[in-house]
Amino acid sequence: MPNFLSIIITPVIGAVLAFLVTFTLVQSMSASPDQNPAEQAALVYGK
Amino acid sequence: MGRGFTRVLPDALVAVVVLVLTWPMWTTAGYGLARDMVFSPRAPWTLDAIGMGSSLPRAVPLDGVLAAATSVVDGAVVFRVAVAGVLLAAGWGAHRLLAVVVQEVSPAARCLVGVAAVWNPYVVERLALGQWALLATYAAMWWLLPVVRRVLAGERRAWWASVCLILVASLTPTGGALVLMVVVATLVVVVVHRDSIARAVRLLLVAVAAQLPWVLAGVLGAASATSDPLGVEVFAARAERPGGVWPSLLTTGGVWSPFQVPASLTSWGGHALTVLVVVVLLAGGARMARREQALALAAVVGFVLAGLAHLPGGGDALAWAVEHVPGSGLLRDGQKWLLPYVVVVVSSAGIAVTRAERALRRRDSDLGALLVGAMALLPVVLVPDAAGRTWQALEPVTYPDDLTRAVAVLDDPDAVGEVVTLPWASYREFSWGNPVSAADPLPRWTERPTVVSDALLTESGSVAGEDTRAREVETALARTDVPLAESLAAADVGWVLVYADQPGAAELDTSGLTPVVDGSDVRLFRVPGADREPESSVDSAGPVAVAAVAAVDAAWGVALLGGLLGGLIVAVRARRPSREVTDQ
Q: What number is the ipTM of this complex?
């Protein structure tokens, strides 16, 4: 791959990745606990 | 920059993605304890660790490997190395396999395959379920396929790596069955082409020998080798979104439990992924199937097995097999059999992207490279909340001091008798743990024989376990005609460990029991009158049987280390004369 392509692609990938990582981190931290309509009061395997 | 940079870019991207998926492991101290995953400071060398306890050898030889590893370094380190290691190995192996399958593969396609190999529904859901050892099989599969190719081509040096990878893939019975499936498929393909049959048979013999630790323990051990047929219904693959179970399986998801499924897969993200996987298979599946015929055959078989419970008569056939055929319980968790199919889908994505890139470059080379480069992150875009699921399971836990003290008392050489954990439950949500259910850490920590409930309480009912000793203790606990202390003493239970934070713990009748550790999180009691060691497999199966299993385990471990060392030496020597031989 020519060098100039690497120079173009790298910041694009880096920027998108940085955004996604930040988005994922924020979303994960603010995620609500598991919600399942069929959830029972008793602790079930896998929950 | 230039070639050197693009060479390391796929590996670096995989490392970043793995870092995101496992973030809590690196920011919080402690041990992995969530759902099926249990890491303790020091895993014990017990009869259960070699599958000769009273329960089925579900984690054999994994428990022995963990006991060996944690006798060298602390379990907290092993936890991080193991989980991150299997994910990194999967991503790094995936784009290298693509380079073997496709000539002149671009860095962008390698990036996509590396990311997709780690960030996909199968890996995320299994990791969220705590089944990192199954992912060790998945990781090994990426590296094993090119090695098998070299073995069949008559390259003798490749045997070291093949032995090592088959053993790593066989850390659990399920993993072993999966690698056997691929090796058998290899033999079938070789027989059809009438080529290298002797080498394929030798490979099969290695794969069969790799299963001896759990097979032998299953045959000689005390636990029932058949299981509760209710498990077939409970652990069958499940539709994650409207449209039935097959689209979910198509996108490598469909795990039986809804709690591990990222929310994005239950809506538009899942549907978009379904369309994308179909396109990918149409564009790259045929090429992949031609190049890796054995893998493709195993993928078809695995896909059918994954959805078998949903085929007409499939559920009944599985339930009959699980109830009557020893070892068939392995089949009841359907979605895990997708493993070879996941490898096919991810590799096909790489082939499809390579084809797209070549077509686009004919029109506009810059645009082609940019579009394909951006596609490397498509797996993350489609399932952006994957890390939310893995973080729940990978949040490390700090064990309470009470539990550490209790283990120290139980591990005293003068202590006698089994320990039972109460309240009687197989999975608990500990107040000092993370907010998901977790298996009991005690059997994976203390050297003392431990009896825990092995019945799995699910939304569809309670799936009975196979541990005969657990049944006896359960019967003793159910007695209402005598105090708990008397019924446990009559059942030869020497110790009772109570998780004080659990529902029902405060109501337990501990009168007559002698408190030894009285903490706010954990309480340990001695059962008066129970002063003899319980009957073990040494008594029931005989010392010769136990010694035979231990010897097989030792040979397994030596073969693993030998294969690892031999493979490394061969790899280093191969790199010396020319770096170009990499990936050949």
A: 0.72
